[in-house]
Amino acid sequence: MSRLARPLHPLALSVAMALAAVPLLTVQSSFAEESSAQRGFQVPAGDLSQALNNLAEQAGLVLAFDAELTRGKRSPGVSGQYDIDGALNQLLAGTGLQALKLSGDRYRLEAIPDSGGAMQLQATTINAAYQAESPTGPVPGYVATRSLSATKTDTALIETPQSISVVTKDQMRAQNAESLNQILRYSAAVVPETRGATASRLDQLTIRGFLPTTYLDGLRMPSSRDALPQKDAFDLERVEVLRGPASVLYGQGSPSGVINMVTKRPLDVPFHEVGVEYGTFDKKRTTFDLSGPLDDQGVYSYRVAGLFDDADGQVEHTETRRQSLSSAFTWRPDEDTSLTLLGHFQKDPKGASYGSVPAWGSVLHSPTGRKIDVDYYDGEKNFEKSDREYYSIGYAFEHHFNDVWTLRQNARYLRAEGIYRSIYNSYLQADYRTSTRSTIATDVDMDAYNLDNQVQAKFDTGPLQHTLLMGADYQNTSTDTKAGYGSGPSLDIFDPVYGAPVTTPAFATDATSRSEQTGVYLQEQMKWDNWVLLLGGRYDWASTDGTTKTLRTGAKSKSSLDSEAFTGRVGLVYLFDNGLAPYVSYAESFNPQSGTGYGGSVFKPTEGKQYELGIKYQPPGSNSFITAAIFDLRQSNVPTMDPDPTHLCGNGRCQIQDGEQQSRGFELEGKASLSDNLDITAAYAYLDNRASKSNSTVRYAPISDIGVGPAVPVEGTTTYGVPRHTASAWADYTFRDGHLKGFGAGAGARYVGSSWGDTANTLKVPGYTLFDAAVHYDIPNIVNLNDKLRLALNATNLANKEYVASCYSYSWCWYGSQRTVQASATYQW
Predict the structure, then answer these.
(1) How many CA within 13 A on the CB side of residue 658?
(2) Which domain holds residue 490?
(3) What's 411's DSSP letter?
(4) Structural domain tally of the chain?
């Protein structure tokens, strides 16, 4: 049996199991009572959007409405015995809104017409069942209450027994975030921009001390340094951070968790936006976003968004440029079926610099008495090149067979190409000022296929409410990389003179690789009274095949790695009536490893295990959400030095998988959108990350005449670039009445503690505090009653603090981003 054919059996088995279970679960199912029947409702007074969410969940409704209708409004709540129509009328009393019944369990909210017959707004259709907030749609303010990422089902965050946070579009807009690094600046336990100012080219960050796995619309994004797709924040509706192992739903990946970016979807109300932006470093950016229905029945809707971005890099002689076009089309032939097609094209013909500076003269005092300029460039403008291009096409399909069964299928094909040429600092010579430089040239082509099939059943058995999820997914990534390496002319880091000829290194190798993963998973969410139990299990088959051809000799070497793994998760939440929800959870992950030990033994996958204890707080009647968690996360099967000195591999001692990396810590995060004026987000994290097991006894390994460099971690040492303390806070206030109506301002502070700059823990990188600010002014009714002009001015690193974001060794450190000031104008109609 071929390797390609083998993974199809689990998929067929999963589908067969799902179909076989239909008769049994259908008999056991129950659904919401008819709207004419009375029942008990308990919805406290408070924010109208949250009150509608509570009522919709209690009654089993789908509510459709424009989010702007409810923004800033409060509900008197509802308590007692009502039919659905009566409960809605009571909940909407005094809000100026009314509920119109569309079908048995579907209602639309509209403004109550005045005596002159005021215009009625069309509704934003909410595709998800049983709640008013969609986990893929817009959220007014900073507080999202539901998510798909943690369970792959539409689940309330407070019922999820694992740490998860959501950054909404409103928060991105207020902070003018344009990349994943910038979006997550104010998220707990996330250290973004670990490569400082070069982060404009790559989104490199850590969560709980490990590199996370990135997903887009629930499907994995491929990783390749020189052809890595980088999603622009303008194309995103929200970003969700699930902390801790997540292999039970997503398969192989980092133990730190999952970052899931959710793209913009078509809207059922007309929406049009154009924007322009100009700022420091000659920043020029234009955007457009158009969406709405294509027919009166709401069967077809569309969305098209694009941008052009051009700027100078912070580092001298560098530039960035981006052109992007996204499109989405939704077909909804009936209330139970939807198909959304998603397409994207992006070209980054200029990617700034990926260069670095030595520690001497940046973090450490140089014996020369001089400091390296913050905009120092270690490359050559006429040689360096970073040209990336990628496109993707996919779809999201959902069909409700009945009140119990739902089928979903998500798929995507992605093609990425990258051309990279660079000359970079390799190490500092003994005079503390001459940089020895190396060269690299790569051409990368990458194809990635993703498919995720899900069958969901919602049913009751007596007092127990069940959400059962069965799934099978498949991913295939093929990469072809031509690479060459060489040496280049040296450079004086204090008085650089550019223009020396640089020879492009000839391609030395042509490496092709293909990685596949097939997984089947089963998850049960069981609710009884105030208890919520989450159980999940998954089995994966993963394989990687590679061929490396030496172009000079024509010799070929092949490698193959097959892995299988079972991962699980269990969690328990108790929902107090006052909004408190303590929880406990356990989760696992696995990640295949390349390489071999003594005698050619193949490395096993690393394994992640996490114990987490936390509490979530969603105060009734308040649009706010607070989470706190303590955790113990361990990654085992980490390669470390073979204790037997006679076991030699290549030019040195073999490695054996006896190592372990541990992260233990505490995190706190809160978000609030209070009334219609104030939005707040704040976070703090304490992290103790260290090599808890290692056979290495060598504290450091010399790499040049100066300083020390990386080595296999010694037991007790901390991973480079991982600070022990991080904290952030941001607040934005907007006047809705009076002479200052429409005017708002925001301010924030970010603290990143000191970190080690090498694996031997001999180089300490100081911590830093940065300040951000924004002012904005909204001018409504420019041309008609439905348009708005927003003027904004955003500044980051307001004090223009010079700092080093992190170091990888004494040779490679990265300056952080300097002050940026950007003015923007956005017109919506």
Answers:
(1) 16
(2) 269-828
(3) E
(4) 2
